[in-house]
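Subject: Sanity check before I submit

Could someone independently write out the structure tokens for this chain? I want to compare against mine line by line before I put it in a report. The sequence has 344 residues.
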Amino acid sequence: MNERISPYVLTNDNSPAFWLIDNLWMPLAGSFLTNGNFCFIEQVCGTGIGGPPTHSHPSDEGLYILEGHCTFHAGGETVQAGPGTLVSVPRFVEHSFTVDAPHSRLLNFYSPGGFEMLLMSLATPAAERKPPAPGSVPMPPRWMVEECSREFGQIPGTSLPFADPPTKENMATKPSTVNSIKPFGISTNEAPAYWSQGILWTILASAEQTGGSYSLMEELCPKDSGPPPHTHEQDEVIYVVEGELTMITGPERLNAKSGALAYIPARCVHSFRVDSSEARLLNFYLPGGFERVITEFGIPTKSRVLPPADLKQRGTAEQMKALFQRVGMNMVALPDLPRDGRRS
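---
Independent answer below. Compare away.
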């Protein structure tokens, strides 16, 4: 584990908050907290303006819709995205989007990180945790947007994001000629699903689909579920969509409720337990590949409910151990902690 980088939990109640283009932006993971590997921003769109005109950047980007509806254009394709939809945009691929429903809530992430620096350079600190009144926050000067875009890697397409509002004319995108990885959109109702370890896992993005950059799974977990203490070679990020967890990172316990993000650096000993009756999580791995633990030994299912209690796992203990070694996962003997977080 990189000694400079520590695990943490940050929520949309206590994160930094900014206003820009009638939106509320709440960075939950930034480059300085993730060794430059990742940034993650929750945003609430106050009006139907919301998104940027056509542009690209040197980071892979993903957007997940929590509430509302957006129309995405990426690499010449169009995706209609409602709640539970992931849109994956590879680096240097042209993209744009519009917000079709006011107060839509989006999760916006980048690998590697850096976009949050562009945002915080142009935005205004939010006076409260809701979008500003329409038109109350002035757009930044065009020269500042141009310079910050150059410095932080935003490449304008038909227009300049954060300076030019989206219109029909400046939202078109073309297929990429510099990246063979294709953009895609998929919803949790359509993505491949598996039962494993008492949990429903939905594979929203695999390493193969993202060129190895990341993988993303949604988990539906029952009370008291969670993995034993372990480490792996990937950074891990958990966003709590619904429910409540206790994150265990080494000797520490960190509470994570709905709207919280937990960041776990590579090789950090960690685990979690579900405290609520159920919890729904988004689980990222950077780089991707960890999803093979689920796809190779989970039970494929078309159902979107928790698995039956008597479900048997596929594979032998030796096969599982071999797979754990291939993906860089190691179980760790860690003394349990009582609820007050102190060793007995």
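---
OP: Matches mine. For the report I'm noting this point. Residues 337-344 have pLDDT under 50 and may be disordered.
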